Amino acid sequence: MKPRAPSVCPVCGGKLWVTGLVCKTCGTEIRGGFEQNEFATLPPEQLEFLRMFLKARGNLKELERALGVSYPTVRARFDALLRALGYQAGADLETERRAILDALERGEITPEEAAERLSGLGR
């Protein structure tokens, strides 16, 4: 696996800005300030989950089988991915938190699954 370019400053934690690109074929260099797309800033585990999601053609049940985890866990990881990409509003966090606690109370998920899903909400 090739090394991955960092997206966060190791000193202050700020977002890094790309300032140069080089063509691998002819060596042409382009200098300037470039935004990274939202996918480039995902942590490796969320990027891998996104790849698997695409390979499964968006089928969460297929992901459940491929990952060997429960459907609620797959759903929690998917929701965390959406939040990391900025596709979910803050009000949705409280709704999801309440749904996790309700599922735990009904015995639909284990305390470990609830803890994993709750910790994924803050990402």
Notes on the protein architecture:
With 123 residues, the protein is mostly helical. It is built from five helices and two strands; from the N terminus they run ββααααα. It folds into two domains: 1-37, no CATH class; 44-121, no CATH class. Strand 1 and strand 2 form a beta hairpin.
Quick structural gist:
The protein has 123 residues and is mainly α. It has helices at 44-55, 60-67, 71-84, 90-105, 111-121, and strands at residues 18-22, 29-34. The protein folds into two domains: 1-37, no CATH class; 44-121, no CATH class.
- The coarse overall form would be elongated
**What strand order characterises the main sheet?**
1-2
The largest sheet is: 2 strands, antiparallel
What Rg, in angstroms, do the CA atoms define?
18 Å
Helix count, DSSP H or I runs of 4 or more residues: 5
Strand content: 5-15%
Domains, number: 2
Could you list the spans in which at least 5 consecutive residues all have pLDDT below 50?
Answer: none
Question: Mean pLDDT across all residues, rounded?
Answer: 85
**Structure summary, number of beta strands:** 2
Task: Please give the share of residues in helix.
Answer: 40-55%
Order of helices and strands: EEHHHHH
End-to-end Cα distance: 25 Å
| Class based on secondary structure composition and strand pairing | mainly alpha
Topology, element by element:
Blueprint: E1 18-22, E2 29-34, H1 44-55, H2 60-67, H3 71-84, H4 90-105, H5 111-121
Antiparallel strand pairs: 1-2
Helix pairs in contact: 2-3, 3-5, 4-5
